[in-house]
Amino acid sequence: MSVGVLGAGAFGTALAIVLAGAGRPVTLWAREGADEMQAARENARRLPGPRFPEGLRATGDLSEAAAAGTLLLAVPMQRLRPLAERHAAALADRPLVACCKGVELGTTLGPAGVLAEVVPEAPRAVLTGPSFAADIAAGLPTALTLACAEPDLGARLQAQLSTPTLRLYRTEDVTGAELGGALKNVIAIACGAAMGAGLGASARAALMTRGFAEMNRMAQALGAAPATLAGLSGFGDLVLTCTSEGSRNYRFGMGLAESRAQGTEAAETVEGAATARAAAERARRLGVEMPITEAVVAVLDGRMALNEAMETLLARPLREE
Ligand SMILES: NC(=O)C1=CN([C@@H]2O[C@H](COP(=O)(O)OP(=O)(O)OC[C@H]3O[C@@H](n4cnc5c(N)ncnc54)[C@H](O)[C@@H]3O)[C@@H](O)[C@H]2O)C=CC1
Ligand SMILES: O=C(CO)COP(=O)(O)O
């Protein structure tokens, strides 16, 4: 079965490389620079280094990629709706696998919810979990979650998108999988900030653990299963993103501590910034407490300095774990 990847950022390119390397015919659609990629057999801008396998073709013509049997949508979360709206007719009749991690500003929907609104007739799934694009493209072992509410389609996609190095686990809990992937980025910003401010690895462990607690509170309020949050898409990705400078969200947090990024958005994709605002908004409406997320939003909006945000978290009433 052929695969079309829409969005030639680091992640889309890495998925295209690993799938083509495993023998699937893959067409990678890039909004710009497709001809250069196709000629150089490399995405020098977003994922320099890994070479395109023979079965991978880059194109600037979306209809070529959209003709594939399964489509992976690998654009940043806030770009998913504009992309899907613009190309709704081409996306309407085949399985769509959203590969973005985040919560949409305004609607507070995740990727599956956005696709359900824009292309309701298309069967949909979400691919998420702990993986750096560079690791996937290098053929290093990686395990991800394929979330699909329809078990038969989920099983088909799991088989189609797994390779010898990219191992997919399946769940029907789409809400849990996408919230885990979205909310861990917010906690990664907080952890990066704590480490950048020199607060130490013990403080980071506390933020990760209490962050995981608030991820769980939000996810359960929205009907997700705790087991999903404890899996690759939640706990797994939280660990990766909060402990590695390979993460853009973590590095962005470190930049906040060094006042390099305070009150500004990063030049590269940092999903946790918009997601923090969208998740905080949703949590307030649900009456769910998310103090770390609120602190991240306060710092991003310039309402609090980082040290004030940390003090606010430390001054919260003592309570049972
Ligand atoms: N980079 C990574 O290691 C991983 C990224 N992800 C997720 O994948 C998603 C995409 O991230 P990256 O690929 O890393 O971002 P990136 O910053 O490398 O690239 C984003 C790409 O999206 C394209 N784009 C933006 N708006 C578009 C539009 N309207 N139409 C077409 N293309 C558009 C840009 O041209 C760019 O090529 C994010 O949600 C991220 O959280 C998930 C797992 C790993
Ligand atoms: O989602 C990721 C790892 O699973 C990538 O993290 P960043 O977007 O922070 O780089």
Automatic annotation (TrEMBL):
Positions with a binding annotation for NADPH: F11, R31, K101, A133, R248, E271
Catalytic activity, EC: 1.1.1.94
Ranges for domain Glycerol-3-phosphate dehydrogenase NAD-dependent N-terminal: 3-151
Family, as annotated: Belongs to the NAD-dependent glycerol-3-phosphate dehydrogenase family.
One GO CC term on file: cytosol
Chain sites annotated for binding NAD(+): G7, A8, G9, A10, F11, G12, A133, R248
Top-level taxon of the source organism: Bacteria
Keywords of the record: Cytoplasm, Lipid biosynthesis, Lipid metabolism, NAD, NADP, Nucleotide-binding, Oxidoreductase, Phospholipid biosynthesis, Phospholipid metabolism
Source organism of the structure: Rhodosalinus sediminis
Residue sites binding sn-glycerol 3-phosphate per the record: K101, G129, S131, K184, D237, S247, R248, N249
Cellular compartments annotated: Cytoplasm
GO molecular function: glycerol-3-phosphate dehydrogenase (NAD+) activity; glycerol-3-phosphate dehydrogenase (NADP+) activity; NAD binding
Limits of the Glycerol-3-phosphate dehydrogenase NAD-dependent C-terminal domain: 173-311
Catalytic activities: sn-glycerol 3-phosphate + NAD(+) = dihydroxyacetone phosphate + NADH + H(+); sn-glycerol 3-phosphate + NADP(+) = dihydroxyacetone phosphate + NADPH + H(+)
Entry annotation: catalytic residues: K184
PANTHER family to which the protein is assigned, alphabetical: GLYCEROL-3-PHOSPHATE DEHYDROGENASE, GLYCEROL-3-PHOSPHATE DEHYDROGENASE [NAD(+)] 2, CHLOROPLASTIC
Binding site for substrate: K101, R248, N249
Pfam family, one: NAD_Gly3P_dh_C
GO BP annotations, alphabetical order: carbohydrate metabolic process; glycerol-3-phosphate biosynthetic process; glycerol-3-phosphate catabolic process; glycerophospholipid metabolic process; phospholipid biosynthetic process
Pathway: Membrane lipid metabolism; glycerophospholipid metabolism
Function: Catalyzes the reduction of the glycolytic intermediate dihydroxyacetone phosphate (DHAP) to sn-glycerol 3-phosphate (G3P), the key precursor for phospholipid synthesis.
Stated name of the protein: Glycerol-3-phosphate dehydrogenase [NAD(P)+]
